[in-house]
Amino acid sequence: MYDIAKIREDFPILARTVYGHPLVYLDNGATTQKPRVMVDALVNEYYSANANVHRGVHYLSQQATELHEASRETVRRFINACSTDEIVFTRGTTESVNLLASTFGDEFMGAGDEVILSVMEHHSNIVPWQLLAARKGIGIKVIPMNDQGELLMDEYEKLFSERTKLVSVTHASNVLGTVNPVKEIIAKAHAHGVPCLVDAAQSVPHTVVDVQDLDADFLVFSAHKMYGPTGVGVLYGKEKWLDALPPYQGGGEMIQHVSFEKTTFNELPFKFEAGTPDYIGTTGLAQAIDYVNALGMDQIAAHEHDLTQYAIDRLREIPGMRIFGEAAHRGSVISFLVGNIHHFDMGTLLDRLGIAVRTGHHCAQPLMQRLGVEGTVRASFALYNTRDEVDALVAGIERVMKMF
Ligand code: PLP
């Protein structure tokens, strides 16, 4: 049984009020709230097992190292990677993409080579490639979408050339909610001999993601969007690819031997983890994974699917409602505008009712351009949201409409 009342008790912040109203937190696409067990794990480690990892012979250092490496194994199992060597800890999705753009770009791309992105990418999967373009003269091609917010697979196929070196697409749109057919996207890339990077920032918190089933070459996500701490993320890469890439940053941890004449690098995954890692944060990420696993990813997905469907039905009752993204396969993100009420006004006034939504371009300005809007209001649901909160959102929107 999915006991939502009991689940909500796991998240202390959900009991607070904002401007005298019960908090209705619908900005989960930006970051999720944290279960007590996750925060407790961070505090416990600081209080009882804190020491730098991978470098001490003393008891605490070994204990901290064991916890850190156990977290890597938890992540491996969570996304079904073959080996912990394929799990690189980073600061988040953004750093993971930058790591790849830099290293893959250095090793495998030169002037005139191309990367294929999609029109619905977050800036973090656009700008690193533009920086690479500025540095090395690579080209960027973009998969377009239809008015429902679904990628045009025929057009995608036409973008390949002998200069295509990588495809990098989001699994789920943080604006439209669209869940892209990444397995098919990857298969098509492989048919052209091209590897594929999947931005799973908005999918890993909501559905089972299996890197072997997808046959993803690289996959990235952030802990904070899936009930874990800020400042930790993951870069998954197939061993053969990570092995072939040069290091990203230099420093401690990532070396085997250093002399002024010649330095050799550590084995995977440490080659990409220069400096002291956020070993407390990785414990938090592992706790968050344990938490969602205990609830069951399938149960979470079913709950969020039901809630999203209910929200779409209720929002559609509102006169002047425009929902952006009508993909057949969609996740728990809904972007909308009502009449000619500015998204910023709507967000600000909803906030006064205790309802937290995101407004603006959602770090996806090229997508906004495609939609012909400057920004939208976005409600995004998590495992703890309820139908009552959807009703509060609808009532809130109706109240704001009356003010205009
Ligand atoms: N990719 C997508 C699809 C996102 O929604 C986000 C964050 O909103 C990111 C990447 C960037 O994640 P982070 O800021 O945690 O690095």
What is the CATH architecture assignment of the largest domain?
A: 3-Layer(aba) Sandwich
Outline, from the CA principal axes? globular
> Spatial order of the strands in the main sheet?
4-10-9-8-7-5-6
CATH fold naming of the largest domain: Aspartate Aminotransferase, domain 2
Low-confidence stretches: none
Strand segment tally:
17
Number of domains: 2
**Average pLDDT reading:** 97
List its traits.
404 residues, Aspartate Aminotransferase, domain 1, 7-stranded mixed sheet, 4-stranded antiparallel sheet, 17% strand
Summed up, what is this model?
This protein is an alpha/beta fold and 404 residues long. The chain has helices at 4-9, 36-48, 59-79, 93-108, 127-136, 153-158, 182-191, 211-214, 239-244, 279-295, 297-316, 343-352, 365-371, 387-403, and strands at 17-18, 21-22, 24-25, 87-90, 114-118, 139-143, 164-170, 196-199, 218-222, 233-237, 255-258, 263-265, 321-324, 333-338, 355-356, 358-360, 376-380. Strands 4-10-9-8-7-5-6 form a seven-stranded mixed sheet, sandwiched between helices. The chain has a four-stranded antiparallel sheet with strand order 13-14-17-16, covered by helices on one side. Strands 1-2 form a two-stranded antiparallel ribbon.
